[in-house]
Design a protein that fits this description.
The chain is of the alpha/beta class. The chain is built from 16 helices and 28 strands.
Length: 568
């Protein structure tokens, strides 16, 4: 029998029995044809390769992530994926959708066409994420009907406004979910429901949303699985307790690993989905079980029945590992062709200005002024009770603190307090909104930080300990059409330029990783204390992530689903 490639003497992953079996693998037309004991006596191959008894596993599949979280373009992202053994992803481009609407999504899809990794997409279901923010684009039923025609669209992206789902039957979110269930029943519907339990959780699932990727506890995860939810475990949920629970209880059909958001420096230094699998193995999970959660279950969840296993007629995406425990990736194959080898040079092709011109001119507002950071007090008293957003290391959730802040000459004396100002400035030229609040806890203690990379609305977000540094950080961002900036004593410590929509860079992965590492250190030097300060900062304006957040409309009590006053 004629085949394209015969790989001899490999240890092949058997997904049914979750074990490795020594044998040979034949590949024809980019798909697996055979796996077993037969070799050259049965197959005439154009190429015969010695597998050297390495471990062969399917290419890794990540079904919940946001390319924009790495702040790079799809081709750059694919370059990073392949060397980490990830051959298929499902991306939710709701960041670009919040900036450019349908055009942003279509451009991301177009950019993915020439990538080595298979990039599929979920239609962003929550753009804007809530009614409490201004965005550059919006997605509703008409846009969904347009996007579902795209060949690479295979699911409805995460439904984030979970409070509206369970409290407002006629909300936009519920209209979208019902429309997809009725018109496109083949599309999985991805969910986002942090902390929901009991009848609220069951109501969310009853609406037709049957997955959750948010931060888990054992009790929450157990209840979700019992109610039929599929769990997508990201790294912050991979606590020792949860991994031990999964080791001791067979839940292999009910969860997979996902990355969700990966910073570029983390991508370069630690890897991608392979990092999570290595982490699970090091925590005691059998390699065979960890591999299953990175290949078979994500493929089934997304109804991608043509991949995720090594079997006849499945796409020949696979990895050759030198060692299981360390998950040592030696070679990666896509559609039966070698695309990465750890002994060979692997360089990223250069790519610049590949988006439409207006994608580089998305900040449509003038510079801010010092007066923009003045907070007028509501009374003439010497102090006033304020709501303060409190940052905590270890989580992107924030807490609300009520505290007294001094008033001087009718203004809130925040510069003399132990808190920083936090401001959001609408940047799409739509309404010129501005909102100010106070922030404390594990945030900066001096200087200022500003960014247009602020989930999910991507308005201009500023945190400052004094007006002058806040002004410099904000205007550096505006004048450069987007980015991330850290300032102290009138000096820019770190600036990462993100010219594509104010959220993406076209720099090579290693270069943007270097810049982000420098930014991360600058934030720490300013006193920011967090395992991921960049992600923590950028989610201050995410009004679907508990408890107190801020948008251009003001402070948002996420649990109550309403805008609240700074003053109590």
């Amino acid at each position: 029998m004629q085949v394209d490639l015969l790989i001899k003497d490999v240890r092949v992953y058997n997904h049914v029995q979750k074990r490795f079996e020594s044998g040979n693998v034949a590949i024809l037309d980019g798909k697996f044809l055979y796996s077993g004991e037969k070799g050259t006596e049965s197959f005439q191959a154009k190429e015969v390769m010695d597998g050297k008894e390495r471990f062969m596993i399917p290419g890794l599949i990540d079904i919940h992530l946001h390319i924009e979280s790495t702040m790079v373009t799809p081709p750059t992202f694919s370059y990073g994926l392949i060397q980490n053994g990830v051959t298929t992803i499902v991306a939710d481009p709701h960041e670009m959708a919040n900036v450019f609407g349908v055009r942003g999504i279509q451009e991301m899809i177009r950019m993915g066409d020439a990538c080595v990794a298979d990039i599929y997409y979920g239609i962003p279901s929550s753009v804007p994420a809530t009614a409490f923010e201004t965005t550059g684009g919006a997605i509703d039923i008409a846009e969904i009907d347009e996007l579902v025609k795209e060949e690479r669209v295979i699911c409805l992206g995460e439904v984030m406004d979970y409070m509206k789902v369970i409290t407002e039957p006629d909300s936009k979110t519920n209209r979208i979910v019902r429309h997809v269930r009725e018109r496109y029943p083949h599309l999985p519907i991805e969910g986002h429901c942090p902390k929901l339990m009991g009848t609220e959780l069951s109501s969310f699932i009853f609406a037709g949303i049957d997955s959750d990727h948010t931060q888990q506890t054992i009790a929450g995860m157990e209840e979700r699985m019992r109610m039929g939810m599929f769990i997508e475990l990201q790294e912050k949920s991979m606590t020792p307790e949860i991994i031990q629970y999964l080791i001791q209880n067979d839940r292999s059909e009910h969860f997979c690993f996902v990355t969700d958001d990966v910073m570029p420096d983390t991508f370069v230094e630690k890897g991608h989905l392979n990092h999570l699998i290595k982490k699970a193995i090091s925590a005691g999970m059998k390699p065979e079980d960890a591999i299953y959660a990175g290949t078979m279950t994500p493929a089934k969840r997304m109804r991608m029945y043509d991949r995720g296993v090594i079997a006849p007629n499945k796409i020949a995406d696979f990895i050759l590992l030198g060692d299981l425990e360390s998950f040592d990736i030696q070679a990666v194959y896509k559609d039966g062709q070698k695309v990465y080898d750890h002994t060979e040079s692997y360089e990223q092709p250069a790519s610049t200005h590949s988006f439409p011109q207006d994608f580089y001119q998305s900040i449509k507002r003038g510079n801010v002024e010092e007066n923009d950071f003045v907070i007028e007090a509501p009374t003439q008293t010497r102090e006033v009770s304020c709501r303060v957003m409190m940052v905590a290391d270890g989580t992107t959730f924030t807490k609300e603190l009520i505290d007294q802040v001094d008033v001087r000459e009718g203004q809130l004396a925040w510069e003399a307090s132990k808190y920083c100002v936090i401001g959001v400035f609408e940047r799409y030229g739509i309404n010129g909104n501005k909102a100010l609040g106070l922030i404390g806890g594990d945030t900066i203690k001096r200087g200022a930080i500003a960014s247009t990379y602020s989930h999910d609305n991507h308005n201009l977000l500023v945190v400052g300990k004094n007006k002058q540094d806040a002004l410099l950080a904000a205007n550096t961002i505006i004048e450069n059409q987007g980015g991330f900036c850290a300032v102290e004593d009138g000096k820019v410590l770190s600036f990462v330029k993100l010219p594509v929509g104010g959220i993406l860079s076209e720099e090579p992965l290693e270069e943007i990783a270097r810049q982000m590492k420098e930014l991360r250190q600058a934030m720490k030097n300013l006193g920011y204390k967090h395992y991921n300060p960049i992600m923590s900062f950028s989610t201050h304006s995410l009004p679907v992530s508990p408890d107190l957040k801020i948008t251009d409309l003001g402070l948002v009590d996420v649990n109550k689903g309403e805008v609240v006053s700074l003053f109590v």
